[in-house]
Amino acid sequence: MVNRMESSETLRNKCAACFKQFNRMEHLVEHMRTSFHSVHEPICTVCKKHCRSFESLREHLIGPLPKLECKNIFNVRGCRFCLTILDSPNAHRIHQERCQLSNGLTARLANLGLRDNATVDNTYSRNPQIVALACKMVGGGTDGSLDYCGRVCVIDEHENIIFHAYVTPPVQVTNYRYETTGIRPEHLRDALPLRQVQRKIQDFLCNGEPNWRIRARGGNARILVGHGLDHDLDRLQVEYPPIMIRDTAKYPPLMKTSKLSNSLKYLTQAYLGYDIQTGVQDPYEDCVATMRLYMRMKSQVHRREEYPLASDPQNRNIFATAPWRQNELERMSPEELLAISRSDYYCWCLDRSA
Ligand SMILES: [Zn+2]
Ligand SMILES: [Zn+2]
Ligand SMILES: [Zn+2]
Ligand SMILES: [Zn+2]
Fold first, then answer.
1. Pick from 215, 220, 170, 159: which is nearest to 196 by CA?
2. What is the pLDDT of residues 188-228, one digit of tens each?
3. Which residues surround ligand 2, an ion (CB under 5 A)?
4. CATH code: domain of residue 285
């Protein structure tokens, strides 16, 4: 009897999400205040452990120090790209073949050549709500180290090119970075001036909405997908509100356990199963990779809950600092604490109901 009580006492102080153990209940409550566990975190299908990122879930499943019970099951029927565990080895084989994508670039090269005309083409996608953008930078400044956009591409969610252009930077190009950009002086000679590209992209993204009026939902402005978009937009001199941006370099589940960004090359390899940026880099290829990563993250099935973000005003009291609620929180079970905890980032699965 005593033993059972002791063990239930330790269980009581175990985080229901990440399984961390605490000596005292108040420490668990403290942990919950700062961890923002939620249904949107990557979760191990075997033991139900919540991880902050897919990278830490990968470590949990594959190693170097995996949880053995989970690893053994994952080895037999876990998908190494999306990290889900299938019901049978056969279902796993079929799933993983579909989950691994191949580089769509070669099939599109002909298409790319034809559409290299710097016009916004609406025949392919009439009114896309989600678009991906990527740039390739050439070098300016005395040592060629300053980035200037030399080439830009925008695609829709079906990977059709909406806009693709070489761009003439506002300064003298001192390094074309040909080995990676494939850009030569003649490409930029008659290219579009940055100012014109800037306006085209700005208008296309806003889609008739003035920047200040863009809201997360219910407007005409388009969702913009990309990798490291701050830099791209800065170089294009395009201003766009963060609520409309889905950046694969900044989405917490796709970040490193150290909370730094992964490279797009790595993400494409690890999550989509193919290589990009192997020689001369095409911005279309980057657009496709980010769009595919976005679509995959968006298709995650997470439980619907009211006010899913810790920052929603309705959640203000949940783990608020008001000390009088401490007692109340300490009386709750770890599961109850987890049930009221909310995410501190916007999970892309929420775009499905947008
Ligand atoms: Zn935890
Ligand atoms: Zn989610
Ligand atoms: Zn596990
Ligand atoms: Zn998969």
1. 170
2. 888 999 999 999 999 999 999 888 888 877 788 999 999 99
3. 40, 302, 347, 349
4. 3.30.420.10
